[in-house]
Design the sequence.
């Protein structure tokens, strides 16, 4: 069964393989070091694998969301991008997803994965264990010069909540 049709017997698998291995950046000033696990966001937002196309589209209303992670329990079932939903009208969103080029392992060299992401224009990658457990999300910043951290995500969420509170102060209940 192809990876773009996940189910309980055929969960997501890392498929990046040689594409990342061929992206060998030169070490030097400002070189990224370490592993994917050291740079990933450790508590990414997820959606249940049962979401429908309309719910997936609604999740993409936030412009910072580049990749939806559909899970069943702790395991990644598939991922979705906006492009996956272009021709979809209804039904389960999971059948439209893919893991191809969208997942990596925590022990992969960050410099190699980062170089591959920049070269291919990939902004987000799910990080999964050998048993398909979702461990995190590797988020390349818009500048392409670093990765989002848990602290960055917390700060953004806090700012969003502050903005909402400020907006709600002027709303008559």
Sequence:
């Amino acid at each position: 069964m192809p990876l773009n049709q996940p189910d309980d017997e055929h969960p997501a698998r890392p498929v990046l393989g040689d594409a990342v291995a061929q992206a060998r950046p030169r070490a030097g000033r400002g070189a990224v070091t370490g592993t994917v696990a050291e740079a990933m966001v450790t508590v990414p937002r997820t959606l249940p694998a049962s979401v429908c196309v309309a719910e997936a589209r609604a999740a993409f209303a936030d412009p910072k969301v580049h990749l939806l992670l559909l899970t069943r329990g702790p395991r990644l079932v598939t991922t979705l991008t906006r492009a996956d939903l272009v021709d979809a009208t209804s039904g389960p969103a999971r059948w439209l997803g893919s893991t191809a080029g969208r997942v990596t392992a925590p022990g992969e060299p960050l410099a190699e994965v980062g170089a591959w992401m920049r070269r291919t224009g990939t902004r987000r990658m799910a990080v999964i264990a050998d048993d398909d457990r979702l461990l995190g999300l590797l988020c390349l910043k818009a500048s392409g010069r670093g990765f989002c951290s848990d602290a960055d995500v917390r700060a953004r969420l806090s700012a969003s909540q502050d903005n909402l509170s400020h907006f709600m102060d002027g709303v008559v209940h």
Observations:
- The first helix runs from residue 18 to 21.
- The beta strands are 47-48, 68-72, 75-80, 103-104, 124-128, 134-139.
- Helices lie at 18-21, 36-39, 53-59, 110-120, 150-169.
- The mean pLDDT is 80.
